[in-house]
Specification:
binds flavin-adenine dinucleotide; single chain; D-Amino Acid Oxidase, Chain A, domain 2; nine-stranded mixed beta sheet; 18 strands; elongated; alpha/beta
């Protein structure tokens, strides 16, 4: 399929400057497409800036398809990170991380071994270790650990710094980023997108638009176009724990749905705890106490020197399947909205969006995406 068949002969607008919007803009520009990105605040102002920054395939109740998709995204991250490092001009504190998926009971072992099967089938490096080997790796781990999966194909970085580096890289590829520019509507005529209306009264002409507004996407698409999309704001609380004079953790740990990872700046991220407060997320003592209890149980030898509770929200979608592809019914409107693992998925969502728009290629995920069923109310 040619560019003109896809109506990419004018500017493509990307709305949203989180990790997904910036990655999409960067990939489209790399394929020679003129792109303008609109961000209502600054890159990383949404979920991305508050993320743990884990590029970690299998970070939730994922099936084999999702884990393989995560592996595909990890490979794309690895392909593009050298360019982002070189052009981004920022040390975003990237590190390879080994994640121990700890099991403290037979039921947990059964589940972790299932994940291990899917992770290795996806071509990722991981192995089963017994409890003693786990404690030799990190002596602060609990004696209750009977074994676990040591997942050795994860990267962790400061997500806010990465988002800034990615925006800088997109700009070096020719993307025009307009910061502090809020989209408030779309101009549609003759069954296709013609432009974007901005909050300051101006407008931006475009031939296509990619909506990458994370948790805000459903509300906007409902108000602007009358579609109901299955995207909800999903409140998540996390802790930043001080290491104090202690040595950094020798591996990250995942247990009872909580990731504990030592960042390169010496803070330990522990999260996340779901609270049903959506866009109104505020730090909660209940979430802090619950997360501290998980850390104390699985890593009793780690005594945090300080605790900060951070409340945030991400988009959530059914079965954590991203909404990606064309919006049915109006030409030239595309969505790229991940669920709660969007930092991981940004690279693959960007690649498949750019390939669809430029080359007409449809990724398998687009056929599974709930977007395929979207209808005007
Ligand atoms: C506590 C926490 C920890 C997490 N940890 C991880 C993790 O370790 N790994 C992982 O893979 N995922 C993680 N996630 C999920 C991840 O952060 C998100 O899935 C991902 O960052 C989503 O990126 P995005 O670009 O789609 O959305 P966002 O980062 O939310 O970006 C959307 C952007 O759109 C802008 N915007 C919205 N409306 C408009 C408008 N009308 N006009 C212009 N701009 C607009 C917003 O300002 C925002 O910058 C975590 C989330 C949280 C909250």
């Amino acid at each position: 399929m040619t560019n003109s068949q896809n109506n990419l002969d004018g500017t493509v607008a990307v709305v949203g400057g989180g990790v997904v919007g910036c990655f999409v803009a960067y990939r489209l520009a790399g394929m020679g497409v003129p792109v303008t990105l609109l961000e209502q605040e600054g890159p990383g102002a949404g979920a991305t800036g508050n993320s743990a920054g884990n590029i970690q395939p299998a970070s939730g109740d994922d099936d084999a398809f999702k884990i393989a998709l995560g592996a595909e995204s990890l490979a794309l991250w690895r392909e593009h990170l050298p360019r982002i490092k070189e052009a981004g001009g920022i040390d975003y504190r990237e590190q390879d991380v080994r994640y121990l998926y700890a099991a403290t009971s037979e039921d947990e072992e059964h589940e972790v071994r299932r994940i291990l099967g899917d992770v290795t089938n996806a071509g990722l490096k991981a192995e089963w270790v017994d409890g003693q080997t786990a404690r030799e790796t990190e002596p602060r781990l609990s004696g209750s650990i009977i074994g676990g999966m040591l997942h050795q194909d994860c990267i962790q970085m400061d997500p806010k710094l990465l988002n800034t580096a990615l925006a800088n890289t997109a700009e070096t590829e020719g993307v025009a980023i307009q910061r502090q520019k809020q989209a408030v509507g779309l101009a549609v005529a003759g069954g296709r997108i013609r432009g974007i209306k901005l909050q300051d009264g101006s407008s931006l002409e475009c031939s296509s638009v990619v909506l990458a507004m994370g948790a805000w996407t459903a509300k906007a698409v409902s108000e602007w176009l009358g579609y109901d999309l299955p995207v909800e704001p999903y409140g998540l609380q996390k802790l930043h724990l001080g290491l104090g004079p202690a040595a950094p953790l020798n591996c990250a740990v995942r247990w009872n749905g909580v990731n504990i990872v030592c960042r390169r700046d010496g803070l330990v991220h522990a999260g996340s705890r779901f609270l049903p407060d959506g866009f109104d997320a505020k730090p909660s003592a209940e979430a802090r106490d619950w997360l501290l209890a998980q850390v104390a149980e699985i890593l009793p030898g780690f005594q945090p020197s300080g605790v900060e509770t951070i409340a945030a929200f991400a988009a959530s979608t059914p079965a954590r399947i991203p909404l990606v592809g064309r919006l049915p019914g109006i030409d030239g409107i595309y969505l790229a909205v991940p669920s709660t693992d969007g930092f991981l998925m940004a690279a693959v969502l960007a690649e498949m969006t750019a390939e669809l728009m430029v080359n007409g290629k449809v990724h398998d995920l687009m056929e599974r995406s709930p977007l395929a069923l979207a209808k005007v109310r």
